[in-house]
Amino acid sequence: MRTLAVIVLAAIFSTPQSVVEKFCAAYVKQKEYGLLEGRDRRIIAPMLTKRLLRQLDDLTACQQDWVKQQPQNTTDKPPFVDCCLFTSMPDGMPTTYNIGLAQKLGEGRYRVAIGWEREEKRHETLQWTDALIVQEQPNGEYRIDDVVWHLDENPFNLSTGFKNCREGHWVE
After folding, report:
1. At CB < 8 A and 24+ separation, what contacts does 95-99 make?
2. Which domain holds residue 17?
3. Residue 104: beta bridge partners?
4. In CA terms, which of 5, 68, 133, 165 is 20 to 30 Å from 152?
5. Computed from CA positions of residues 57, 37, 79, 24, in that sequence, does the dihedral angle turn out positive or negative?
């Protein structure tokens, strides 16, 4: 039985696009904001590198530290609550997506563009493009290692996007 599970996982994560497709399908279903926690983490974590998971844990610790630093009865919201870490749209989850080609970056890394869409109330559709950085693992599988927000305009990476978060502490 364990051998079958390994074969299935290898097939799911056998190309950069296949892991991105699996990730996006799970991500649009979760319809949650904030950091990757609970059930969402159990579903998505197998698709992420250990490095990215450590960074998400660091962001969780920073969020908790930020809360401790706030004055009593504050109405401010902690960082990372109203946004989606895996897309650049700050005020809502995507409803559909389109996976682009994998661009080889070197050293087993690929950038896979994602065309996200979200249906709005007035029959409008918002569209934006981000990307996921995928890293080949020693066993030949691929895992998501970073997020590139705003691919078409002033792109920046999740791994460098939180200047106020340092080793689990929120700094002003």
Report:
1. 95/28, 95/119, 96/28, 97/24, 97/28, 99/17, 99/20, 99/21, 99/24
2. 2-170
3. 110
4. 165
5. positive
Which ranges in 13-134 belong to alpha helices (H)? 16-30, 38-44, 50-69
Classify residue 128 as left (phi > 0), alpha (psi -120 to 50) or beta.
Answer: beta
Which uninterrupted H or E stretch holds 6?
helix 2-12
* pTM of this prediction exceeds 0.90: no
Question: Mind listing the pLDDT tens digit for each residue in 74-96?
Answer: 777 766 665 677 888 867 788 89
Quote the tokens at residue 82. Answer: 């109203």
> Is 65:113 a contact under the CB 8 Å cutoff?
no
